[in-house]
Amino acid sequence: MTDDTPPSITPREQASNDMVEVSDPSRLPDRPLVSVLMITYNHAEYLAEAIEGVVSQQCDFPFELVIGEDASTDETRKIALDYQRRYPEIVRVIHSASNVGMNANGHRVFMSARGEYVAYCEGDDYWCSPFKLARQVALIRDRPDVGIVHTDWVRARRVVEGWKVGWNRSVHSRVPRSLLQGELFRTFHYPKILRTCTILLRRSTVVALAGSELGSKAYKFGDAVLAAYTASRWKVAYLAEITAVYRESPNSALRSGKQARLDFLKSSLDFDTDARRFFADREDYPRAYRWEVAVGLFLWSISARDMATARFALADIRDHFGAIGFVAEGWRTLMMRRLTLRRQRRDVSLARTTGGNGPHVR
After folding, report:
1. Residues 176, 245: one domain?
2. Which of 40, 362, 53, 346 is nearest to 198 (CA)?
3. Beta carbons within 10 angstroms of residue 58's beta carbon
4. Gap between the terminal Cα atoms of the chain
5. Are residues 247 and 310 in the same domain?
6. Tens digits of per-residue pLDDT, 277-293?
């Protein structure tokens, strides 16, 4: 379970019929190897940094950036169109007169992608390494057993002076390699891996997921769905470099109040129910996922003073685990987390190339 809720991974809604694309076909590559997908809405404060992190990529192959601008009420569209004019060989902008919502915006952006691989960077996050795409493609291109590549990342939090980036606190600094690469189906729900702004995968994988039973449901997130589907079929490759900054925006889906958190967790229970059916032939589907979600739902419902939801969460725990099963699964979950308490010995590279406000506040 994560606090990252990308709607652009398994979208099913249809975009509005008044969609407009602003691009220059004569300047764009005919066959980009990678399509970078960026959905944005009211991100005027952040968007330039997000785009700069993409157009600054140093690759020996062609790539494109497809920006889905969803009728923002600030200067977001103006900024996106300005970058399209400045980088016509890379940038395409898709927009419409009316707001279509996150899922539909993500759908139309993905359907416009032409690359063999896709990567994601939403308009309020950004990439900090110019080698991200090249090095990720190198890890997956000749590896049919690898389905997705992800990297290390850091968080940015708003402070009085701006945004404070935890450059010295890599999220994966305490995560062992066993939870970062290889066969990760048992731990697909671990919240620090496969962060959306760090992943690269084959476009055909997303198409296959969207056409499956698991990808046909409208959950309030897409990251766990993609992680479960991909990790169940392929190995995960890992690039031990900090390549992305995840901005903990106060306007994100999980920071919009306690009710939003409760709705997210209820949707997570729905996903687990569907996933257990979808992966019925897999004995290694992680029961710990539901344990973490149900416990989280109970605790958040107490915090929100929502006793009806608290009773619902307790009933779910009783029905799916029982007393002994609850303790046993909780112990296994704690043991997995225990692995992350010790800082790992790892040479983690960091390339900061975007922005100019110093290493700590951006």
Report:
1. yes
2. 53
3. 11
4. 28
5. no
6. 999 999 999 999 999 99
